[in-house]
């Protein structure tokens, strides 16, 4: 039976109280347990009483989207009621950057479960789903929404919105965009993207960092090259990243740079844009243009610079950052570190487990 608006609001309130509670106990947790010991496996995964959650992946190479699905896969292992398993397409790559590479083989399926208790979808996973689950599925489907692209009528993800699902948006901007731009079948919830601090290197002191400008331009290499040329004209030392690095190498680059210019997808926008948050965590001065999904946590002048997504605006922001005094820089870096700490994986996990605990009522 569908929930009333008051019942749905009660569940949303539970999520908010849970996140508030986590904020209160976070410092206590950190004093008892270093961040490096946050567990990513459960000792009781194979309890017979646990219900199954089926994940799908077509892994063609590392992306932030795959990484977040990996996070949610691990969140399930902390549930008292559910156990995850995952099906990979035959063409999926098993390179060293695949987050599931060292996962116990018992959780990797050669064929999707025929009768799972829950299904977890993301991105284009709907293309892999059995037709019987697409229209009025008898079992709950959770759909993680990581991009505003889902709301674009010409995007292949758009038709999937007609299928009933409990959709978890990784930012409030995605939820707002979907509510305005598209007809969505099912409940829309927001769980802000959490950062896995166990993977983040300890931040170098400002004096230890390289005195150059790093441009992270994997998604916009031509724009990155344009910025590099313009900055070198005025004598600035620039390092341009346009090729995929290992995650360790990439985070080390961010950590060593005093200033990093992030270039998200300019045409389609982003649903959250985790790289900017990673930059805040390692103490590089973040310059990240408006890409829709970063508006809730990239607060220009407070924890970063968020100019309009134009060459001249980016160059002006870089010049402004270079002119900041040491005290101004440290104030922004302090706020940035606080922002990164607030978006932690423990909060994300607890919020998702709240959804799982109420999944039948929400569905």
UniProtKB/TrEMBL annotation:
Residues 230-325 form the Glycosyl transferase family domain. InterPro entries: Glyco_trans_1. It comes from the Bacteria. GO terms for molecular function: glycosyltransferase activity. Pfam families: Glycos_transf_1. This is Glycosyl transferase family 1 domain-containing protein. It comes from Planktothrix serta PCC 8927. The lineage of its organism: Bacteria, Bacillati, Cyanobacteriota, Cyanophyceae, Oscillatoriophycideae.
